[in-house]
Amino acid sequence: MNKLYLIGILLLFTWSCTTNYPNIPQQYHSLLDSALIKAGDNAPEMEKALAESAKEQKEGMAFLISYMPERDLTTLTADFLLENVDYAYKAREKYDWCNNLPDSVFFNEVLPYANVSEDRDVWRKDFYERFAKYADNSDNMVEAIMSIARNIKDEVDVEYNTKRSKVDISPLQAMKEHMATCTGLSILLTDAYRAVGIPSRLAGTAMWTNYKGNHTWSEVWIDGKWQFIEYYPDTLNQSWFVADAGKADPDNMLHWIYAASYKPTGMPYYAAVDAPYIMQVVDTNKLPEHIRPRFEEMKNEATDIAPYIWGHNVTQRYIDIYQESIKNSKLNDNELMANIVVFADKDTSVSESRLSCRVDVFEGDKNINFGYSPRKTDDMNQFLQLKLKKESNYRFVVSNPEKQIKQEFTLVTENTPTQDIQLILSN
After folding, report:
1. In CATH, what number is assigned to the domain containing residue 412?
2. For 406, which of 28, 75, 119, 415 is 20 to 30 Å away at the CA?
3. Residue 271 confidence (pLDDT)
4. Tens of pLDDT along 234-288?
5. What is the residue range of 342's domain?
6. How many angstroms separate the CA atoms of 291 and 269, rounded?
7. Taking the model in full, what pTM does it have?
8. 301 and 178 in one domain?
9. Same domain, 190 and 295
10. pLDDT over threshold 50, residue 80
11. Residue 36 has pLDDT above 60, yes or no
12. Coil, helix or strand at residue 260
């Protein structure tokens, strides 16, 4: 009898939870049940946010709460969420570019109240009022993107400075300190775009393949494609870091390019080298000797923390952007374009023979360039492309620590505009 009574209570609880979400699509009901349990004592704030959101905004509110990190479920207030959602929908109603977005893009890249691990500031209303004038005076979204990028520095009075209090500094704190580094600047820019209905997200890497540091920037969604833009802008898909990003190692998670996502993707956003998540997957034995001690120290300090910042692997897109920029750049009279592929054996006609390796190019004792050769899964027309001088002596060092490969090749380049260079490994 007691078991039947308990089962009845559980069924009644389940029924009450899953039917208490009027005007919210069924797909969110079980997710909301789970979120409210995780919210604990803060569950009434989440329930209030759902109950008091406007009918046409309820699905957006349900999306935020359904996929909300637990740290936010237990702390955020209904008023915080209601204002954030209300002003996001104001932008959607006002701007055609936002109104025409697929719901999936609006929910994940416009509606969120935060990007990564920054403090949860009440920024949306302020930024809507600050940046609407740039959007209003633009004929289209691209004009608005560039107008905001050109004016945000003066609007928020924040400059690059390593003396900022936190790497992941929040918008209002950055404005208070008048300083931020790349992560904080990118948060400011992404939030400015989201405030006027422009889909935006953070992107970055944990470590460049030259081990000279990392970087974070913003991406914007234009006509179904992601392009990047910086707080100190050049133009879309152009910046100083393109060559570094284009030399990312597609086989090493430490060097991937990541884009952040509010909705869980199954992949953490590994774009911060001091985050515990990336340290859990770094094999320090494969790192250059001069930086290995610091990484081993960081790995020992890292704790097994469940990720709540999610991401996408967008490495190949940045490799493609870089390779396209090389193709479109003018060769000097004494230069040629080298198309480099590494092969495991002499059968260079099949993709299975190709090996992804780091290729360092030396002129004398000076390392002048490097990159990563195509994998066996890449298109046969894809190469590692590097500019070299014609009729010059070069030494190529091919390495792949995982496969215990390190071999050297020497050759003299030809007097032609392009040259195919096949580096065939010896057994």
Report:
1. 2.60.40.10
2. 415
3. 87
4. 899 999 899 899 999 998 899 999 999 999 999 999 986 666 778 777 888 778 8
5. 331-424
6. 22
7. 0.84
8. yes
9. yes
10. yes
11. yes
12. strand
Contact 188, 158 (CB under 8 A): yes
C-alpha 364/C-alpha 423 separation (Å) is: 19
Amino acid found at 102? P
User: Which of 257, 292, 316 is a domain's end point?
Assistant: 316
Q: Do 196 and 144 contact (CB within 8 A), yes or no?
A: yes
Within-domain flag for 367: yes
Q: Is residue 307 domain-shared with residue 388, that is, in the same domain?
A: no
Residue 221 and residue 143 share a domain: yes
305 domain residue, yes or no: yes
Phi, psi of 269, rounded to the nearest 5 degrees:
-85, 100
* 162 located within any domain: yes
- Report the relative pairing of strands 159-160 and 179-180 from DSSP bridges: parallel
Residues in the chain: 427
How confident is the model at residue 3, as a pLDDT?
A: 52
Instruction: Read off the amino acid at residue 414.
Output: E
Q: For the chain, how many structural domains are there in total?
A: 2
Q: What is the pLDDT of residues 149-182, one digit of tens each?
A: 999 999 999 999 989 999 999 999 999 999 999 9
Amino acid at 341: V
Q: Where are the beta strands (DSSP E) in 115-256?
A: 159-160, 179-180, 200-205, 215-222, 225-229
- 20 in any annotated domain: no
Distance CA 331, CA 335 (A): 6
Domain CATH number, residue 294: 3.10.620
Grade residue 11 by pLDDT with cuts at 50, 70 and 90. very low
Paired sense of beta strands 418-424 and 335-343, if any: parallel
Interaxial angle between packed helices 78-94 and 58-66, expressed in degrees from 0 to 180 and rounded to the nearest 10: 130
Distance, in Å, from the CA atom of 334 to the CA atom of 265, rounded to the nearest integer, reads: 47
Residue 251 corresponds to which tokens in the numbers above?
A: 């086989």
